[in-house]
Amino acid sequence: MADDRKLPTRADDFSAWYNELVLRAELADYSPVRGCMVIRPPGYGIWERMQRALDDMFKETGHQNAYFPLFIPESFLRKEAQHVEGFAPETAVVTIGGGKVLDEPLVVRPTSETIIYAMFAKWVQSYRDLPILMNQWANVVRWEMRTRLFLRTLEFLWQEGHTAHATHDEAETEARQMLGIYRKFMEEWVAMPVVTGQKSDSERFAGALRTYSCEAMMQDNKALQAGTSHNLGQNFAKAFDLTFQTESGETAHAWNTSWGVSTRLIGGLVMTHGDDVGLRVPPRLAPIELVIVPIYKTDAERARVIEVAQGVRAALSGPGSGVPIRTHVDVREHLKPGAKYYDWELRGVPIRMELGPRDLDREQAVIVRRDTREKQPVPLATIGEAVRGLLTRIQGDMFAAARERREAHSVREPVTYDRFREIMEGEGAFVYAGWCGGAECEAQVKTDTKATIRVLPDPEFRSPEAPTRCLRCDQPVKSEALWARAY
Ligand SMILES: [Zn+2]
Fold this sequence. Notes:
The protein is an alpha+beta fold. The protein has helices spanning 14-24, 41-60, 74-78, 81-87, 113-123, 168-188, 235-239, 264-273, 299-317, 337-347, 357-361, 383-408, 417-425, 439-449, and strands at residues 28-30, 37-39, 64-65, 71-73, 92-97, 100-108, 132-141, 155-165, 195-198, 210-217, 223-233, 243-245, 251-253, 255-262, 290-294, 327-329, 351-355, 364-369, 375-379, 410-411, 430-435, 452-457, 479-484. The protein folds into three domains: 14-72 and 112-273, BirA Bifunctional Protein, domain 2 (2-Layer Sandwich); 284-406, Anticodon-binding domain (Rossmann fold, 3-Layer(aba) Sandwich); 410-484, Translation Initiation Factor IF3 (2-Layer Sandwich). It has 14 helices and 23 strands. Helix 2 (41-60) crosses helix 6 (168-188). It is globular. 42% of the residues are buried. Bound molecules: zinc ion.
């Protein structure tokens, strides 16, 4: 049973609210190892649904799953200069195995480009062996100093897609395609709107030619980088001698992409949809979509109500029920209905059904939306239809509300640098403004305000009137940039 102290509110302390909510909704817990987390069943249930949806989309677009080892020879990481520079400071390294000092230390994978492209090099001879379209579901380790549940932990779960192509254009199309799939998943499943675009050079993945990203706005107006897709060019192919014979008989280096999303998305879900009462899980990702709370006083009432509740559950979730609805009947004896409502609201189950003797007399049930907390009576005869319709509506409404919120906290009119600093030091926002393309300007903005360029937005996210001057130096613009503080 969850703790019944009130949650901290989002307005009072967003960060405390987030931590408490993750703990009390039993999504995750701190582990005995500093910086690691335990993902508990309610959190893992959301991850499983994320995995399933993404995995289907990857397979629909021709990718296959494989598995590569956790350990990577240390020398592999050094083969791509930018890659080692980017990842070496946060690697965990195994130097002893079976009581003996290893000849070559093994890095615990922070990401798997090096070992995967070393294997691709072995498997690819000719253009006929391309493309390779692979994905792996795995854990990775990055030795972070400052950690937060789901957002940044030493070990996390993710998927990493890795592909090899014969041409630059094919790799570019693939990197873009996967960014599109991530966007679709985040919008249609997580109900979390994102801005897509390209990263500036300073925020690019270590070893990539170009990095694309999906950026979501959390309820404290900070950005969360929710997924990235990289066109790796030929950098890794050159480092690992991943070559193939072209149709005309020449030897060429392959072109690679890699792309990933992680359990960080669960943190994004919490910070996009949670409220001061608890979690709100979008129906498509909810391990339980409908919880039935029986209401009774006497044993006779109990028997009657629970029988109907179980019948409703069987009808909604069983075979032959159309699209099954993940339904749970809360038969816990030691809790009053009010305590159960509180508990399920904290956990974010999209719909609660209240069912008592008086409802049965009227052949109805009362259903309550978690997102708006609106109540309505529904005839038992058409309950399946009503619940299915409402789940679809909730999914759509949650996305619309999140998008509206983001737009309300986006600044598109021209701002002076002073005004920009004020915004970043105050409420925060997504600020669309010009950038001269200079790394110095970008670095200075970060020093002054902690804001960074999240992406150079894709055309559909750009402002109707393109900015003409750099936010900081007032020089002519090279591109429009989305600036925000970020997790
Ligand atoms: Zn500038």
